[in-house]
Structures are given as structure tokens and as C-alpha cells.
Amino acid sequence: MNLRRTLTAAGAALLALAAATAPAVAAPAPTTAPPSGTASLASVLAADGDTFDRNWYDFDIVDQAVAAVLAAKPDSPVAVLADGTVPLTAFLPNDRAFQLLAFDLTHRWQPTEERVLTSLAGAVGIDAIEQVLLYHVVPGATIDSGTALRSDDAVLTTAQGATFRVDVLSERLALVRLVDQDRNDLDPFLVKSKLDLNKGNVQIAHGISAVLRPQNL
């Protein structure tokens, strides 16, 4: 299922969600003009097609996980990713990050992207996958990388409801850790080569090295 072809009636409910879940600690205001484009993050997620491949450093598993959630729950707030008029910032784990999560949860190493997603769905269920996806979305704010690098100790409230903290270890090196709700596992870092995806639009994304965890998994 290609997320770009997903039709959703989220409308006002999603806008209300965005307003209700603004960052708990505001990030510094961008120094440039605010973006105005309305291309959705769906186009980023499906940029290389809507199928799995052998590149572990793109976002096929996120794309397919979103599609799986919407197939099972058409009214899920995850559909906000297909509405480019709603400002948000998404932090996107690459496929390798999901492979490592699947191994951590099941103690089995899955050799393909498709088997990784199947393994995760079997281990935690579609509702948990939905919650994890929403934990990677910060609605109501378009946070570019420059703003993120000036946001040390900002606490961001996600579409899932829980928060994570921005820990800027080096602004010069663009070394940023995201501190999630699972205190027993390594936290993800921003991937320097995958920042500001969909730049110029009100929906923006940054690649991260691991899956954010809204609770102790």
C-alpha cells in the first residue's frame, strides 16, 4: 500500500491534535522565513517506491508500517503524515534501526526488511506499532536542523502523548541525542546525512539511528 495514495478524513481532528500537543518546552524560533510548502512526508517515505529493498538506510519499514496501521485502522492519527497542510516534525528511524529493534524484542535476526516488519507485528501487535510511530511525530511545529541544534534540553511532546528530550552534545558536529522513555536501551542520534527531509514544507523529517521508545520495551 502506497501512503501517497491513502485518502483520509482526519481534517479538523488532526489539526486539534497538533494544537493540543505542541512541544512542552518550546524550541528556539527559526531565524529564516517559515516554510509554506504542503508536500506531505508521505512523499519522503515512499520516495524510492512502496516496496521493500536491500538498502537498510532508507525508510521502507516506516513507510510499510504506516501503511499497515492505516489498513487496520483507517482513522488512526498516523494519517497526519499524508496531510501536508498540517505542520509537524517526524524523526524517522532507518530500516536498520527497526532490524535492531526486532532483534532486541525477539532475539532473532531477520535478514530482510519484510521479515523485520512481520516479526515486529507478531511480537507487539499493530496497536503498539501505531503508538511507536506516533511517538516519532511532533505535531504543530516545523523544527529544522538549525533549530534542533539550538534546542539543547528541549522536551518535545509527541502525537502519542509522551515526551522525549533533545540532548545537543555538539552543535558544531551536529551531534544530537534524543532521550526517550526507555532508560535501559541506547538512545537514537540524528543522522547527519538525513537531516531536513522535505525541507521547505510545513512537514519536515530527520533520520535517526534507532527507534524511539515511548516506554520500557
Automatic annotation (TrEMBL):
Q: Any idea which UniProt keywords this protein has?
A: Signal
Instruction: Supply the SMART domains for this chain.
Output: FAS1
Residue stretches making up the FAS1 domain: 38-212
Q: Key word Lyase present in the record? A: no
The source's domain of life comes to Bacteria
Per the UniProt entry, the signal peptide is: 1-26
Record's protein name? Fasciclin domain-containing protein
Species of the source: Cellulosimicrobium aquatile
